[in-house]
């Protein structure tokens, strides 16, 4: 398990092109073949942690799902499901979310869902809770989504800024609107808006759209941040942000004015796709730039 986990940690830090090359080297290495054979022999004697983390590492490395090794590990996880602690449940949920549906995977997911329902009251780690929310996804039954919401609300006082960002995405993955959680997350994000990476800004707005959550104070805080740091962003990034605002029907007036000036100063960067996006955004938000509107 340590060997597989170490291989995965090194592998995930590589670029996509390097990963393809390294995966081939790993799969063809004689030691990897022996490791897999030993894992197959010892699967039923492994500790619950080793079992779950080995499965996670193999799936993450891209070992084909229809191999005897992966199918065996999935079946053994089924047999030992009730022995898993909360951390192992979280890792297993993450692993299954990245696997295709087949007979064994579907059976294990169904068992995992029942186990989560029984264990929710004992889970105090907000990171594990939001991971389960994200992995169980929109197909989780409404009563289970509600139980997960109540479990998170019990721990909401300990919500940190990184957890607030992740919780937004977890709720979007479940397609579940919990106003108390979203409001608490929004407050944390507004307090730490200058620490939000650009990609997360877009994901937050997309999550708001998914769960139909409208918080003008949050939208304004994000827009003001992008507005005050517009010189740091590529014009295409600002187009992405404005497009996400348009989807929500939110008009960041000052940013729209500033961006219009950038476009008129340097229109050559616009390809047809970006041009159509800009026209759509300004049209649907019914915004006429403050200056140079004819340009």
TrEMBL record:
Signal peptide extent: none
GO CC, alphabetical: mitochondrial matrix; ribonucleoprotein granule
Transmembrane segments: none
Domain of life the protein comes from: Eukaryota
InterPro entries tied to this protein: FAST_kinase
GO molecular function: RNA binding
One Gene Ontology biological process: regulation of mitochondrial mRNA stability
Protein name (database record): FAKD2 protein
Gene: Fastkd2
């Amino acid at each position: 398990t340590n060997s597989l986990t170490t291989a995965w940690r090194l592998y995930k830090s590589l670029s996509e092109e390097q990963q393809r090359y390294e995966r081939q080297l790993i799969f063809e290495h004689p030691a990897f073949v022996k490791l897999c054979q030993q894992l197959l022999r010892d699967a039923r004697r492994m500790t619950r942690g080793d079992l779950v983390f080995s499965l996670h590492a193999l799936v993450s490395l891209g070992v084909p799902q229809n191999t005897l090794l992966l199918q065996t590990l999935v079946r053994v996880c089924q047999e030992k499901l009730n022995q898993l602690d909360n951390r192992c449940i979280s890792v297993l949920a993450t692993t299954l979310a990245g696997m295709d549906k087949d007979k064994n995977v579907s059976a294990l997911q169904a068992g995992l869902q029942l186990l989560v329902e029984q264990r929710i009251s004992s889970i105090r780690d907000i990171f594990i809770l939001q991971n389960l929310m994200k992995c169980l996804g929109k197909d989780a039954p409404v009563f289970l989504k509600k139980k997960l919401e109540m479990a998170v609300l019990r721990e909401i006082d300990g919500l940190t800024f990184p957890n607030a960002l992740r919780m937004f995405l977890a709720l979007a993955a479940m397609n579940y609107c919990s106003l108390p959680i979203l409001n608490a997350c929004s407050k944390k994000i507004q307090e730490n808006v200058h620490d939000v990476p650009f990609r997360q800004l877009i994901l937050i707005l997309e999550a708001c759209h998914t769960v139909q959550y409208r918080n003008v104070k949050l939208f304004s805080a994000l827009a003001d941040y992008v507005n005050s740091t517009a010189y740091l962003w590529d014009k295409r990034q600002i187009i992405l942000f404005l497009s996400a605002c348009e989807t929500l029907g939110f008009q960041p007036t000052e940013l729209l004015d500033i961006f219009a000036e950038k476009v008129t100063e340097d229109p050559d960067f616009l390809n047809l796709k970006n041009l159509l996006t800009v026209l759509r955004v300004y049209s649907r938000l019914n915004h006429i730039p403050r200056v140079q509107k004819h340009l």
